[in-house]
Every structure is written in C-alpha cells, then in structure tokens.
C-alpha cells in the first residue's frame, strides 16, 4: 500500500526501525551502533533509545540497550488475533501427532521467513532445536524450504525486485549464494510447486515445503516438515511426505 506523504509519520517509522535493529547478531546496541544500523543520526538514535527505554520496550545499563519482554506484546497480539496461525495450528498438531515429525508454517517478511505456527515432533533432530525454531523465529528465505517456496510464488516481477541488489549469505557449504543459480533454483521450485532443501540452513537438516493457497489461488504461507537425510530420503519424500503435505494444503485451502 502507498500512502500520501502527509500521512506518513516519519518519527514512528524511525522508532520502529530502532526496534528492528536488534537481532541475534546484535542483541545489545548503543547510540552509535543504532545509528549505523538504521541510517539515522547518532543524536536521533540516542533520543529514540531513551524514549523506548522510558516506555519499557528497552532495558539499559546506561550505555547499551537491549529489548525487554514488553516487545512480546506485539507478537502475542498477532498470534492471538491473526486468523492464519489459529487456522493452521490444529493441522500442524495433527500432522505431528500422526508422524512424530516437526512441522512449521511460515510467511514471508522481506528477506526472511517468519514462523507463525509450529508443532515439534518427538523425532525432531536435537541439533535443530539448538537454533531456537519457535513462533516468531526469523529464518533467511533463500536458505530454507519454506522461504524458497514463498519466493517461487511471487510474481516474476516481484521476485526480480526482491533479488535486486541482494547479497545471499552463505550459511552452510550447501547454501546457494550465486544469483544466477539461485534464479534457476527458484524457477525449478515454481515448476515443481514444492521445495526440498538439503542442509542449506543447517548441516544435517533437511526440509520439504509446499505452498498454502486460499480459494482465490493466492499463496498466504508455506508449510514444511523437517528431518534427517534418512527420514527425508528422495523415495520417502515422494512416497510419504509430499503426499502428506499436499493433502494438508488441500484440506486447509477452504479455510484460508
């Protein structure tokens, strides 16, 4: 959506960009680091940090700032009020109970996929848990099965815009970081209408994802199953996991 310039509140946008500057790489920021990460001046960054601390969204030791638990109000409100997570969660729970595997539902937000529903299975790989895959977790779209499915379901124009000027980070030795090969990869996912990602995000971890579409054909999210190479061997994917995910996607379609 595009709004009129007069309706755009620049101060609010800057404040939100300060909150978004905190991530797993930079959990604590001072005014200088915040200015560098947001593109605003150091003086403005300092005022935003002080204001957010005063409002309770940040904690501070006087020099550095970090997110407080209060920011979870936003995520909690989304999970409580958004129809999508509430619609998907029962299906993920059922799939997990049926197979003892781990299933997630993900939406695209910029360069990342965000987990909006999840059900961890008894057979979930232990190393997978170490990465803290939880509701709200953000994963690089180019290196995950769900992210690739969501990118493949963008229009070709929107995908080209998404890729323009973007550096694809190498996360493992199996992560595709070349722009031309990545375009070919996404074209293949678009043709297959599913994605099998092998160790692109974490070594030893394999994931299969399919798109979730509503009755109008719009892709709203992607769901995946995660496992080891043995659990997601090619033959097992075709015989068991892909039909299971596709059946779930078809069942969910009238509800989305």
Descriptive notes:
Strand 7 and strand 8 (219-227) form a beta hairpin. By secondary structure, this protein is α+β, with helices and mostly antiparallel strands. The protein contains ten helices and eight strands. It has helices at residues 10-20, 31-38, 42-54, 72-81, 83-99, 126-129, 145-152, 156-163, 179-192, 234-252; strands at 58-60, 65-67, 102-109, 112-119, 138-140, 195-198, 206-213, 219-227. It has a six-stranded antiparallel sheet, with helices on both faces. Strands 1-2 form a two-stranded antiparallel sheet. It is globular and about 60 Å long. Residues 126-131 have low confidence and may be disordered.
In angstroms, what is the radius of gyration? 20 Å
Q: Quote the distance from N terminus to C terminus.
A: 22 Å
Quaternary structure annotation = single chain
Walk across the major sheet and give the strand order.
5-4-3-8-7-6
How many DSSP-defined strands? Answer: 8
Main sheet record: 6 strands, antiparallel
Helix fraction? 40-55%
Q: How many helices does DSSP assign?
A: 10
- Provide the residue-averaged pLDDT: 92
Beta-strand percentage range? 15-25%
- Helix vs. strand class: alpha+beta
Could you state the order of secondary-structure elements as H and E? Answer: HHHEEHHEEHEHHHEEEH
Low-confidence stretches: 126-131
* Shape descriptor: globular
């Amino acid at each position: 959506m595009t709004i009129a310039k007069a309706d755009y509140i620049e101060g609010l946008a800057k404040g939100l960009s300060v909150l978004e500057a905190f991530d797993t790489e930079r959990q604590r920021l001072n005014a200088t680091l915040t200015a560098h990460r947001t593109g605003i001046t150091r003086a403005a960054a300092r005022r935003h940090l002080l204001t957010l601390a005063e409002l309770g969204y940040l904690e501070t030791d006087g020099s550095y700032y970090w997110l407080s638990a209060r920011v979870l109000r936003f995520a909690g409100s989304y999970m409580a009020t958004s129809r999508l997570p509430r619609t998907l969660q029962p299906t993920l729970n059922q799939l997990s109970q049926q197979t003892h595997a781990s299933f997630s539902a993900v939406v695209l937000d910029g360069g990342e996929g965000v987990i909006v529903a999840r059900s961890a299975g008894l057979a979930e790989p232990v190393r997978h848990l170490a990465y803290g895959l939880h509701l709200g977790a953000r994963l690089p779209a180019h290196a995950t099965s769900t992210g690739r499915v969501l990118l493949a379901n963008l229009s070709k124009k929107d995908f080209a815009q998404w890729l323009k000027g973007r550096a694809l980070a190498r996360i493992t030795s199996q992560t595709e970081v070349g722009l031309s090969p990545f375009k070919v990869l996404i074209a293949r996912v678009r043709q297959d209408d599913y994605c099998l990602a092998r160790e692109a995000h974490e070594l030893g971890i394999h994931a299969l994802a399919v798109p979730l579409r509503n009755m109008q054909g719009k892709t709203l999210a992607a769901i995946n199953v995660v496992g080891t190479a043995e659990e997601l061997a090619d033959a097992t994917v075709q015989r068991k996991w892909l039909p299971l995910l596709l059946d779930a996607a078809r069942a969910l379609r009238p509800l989305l």
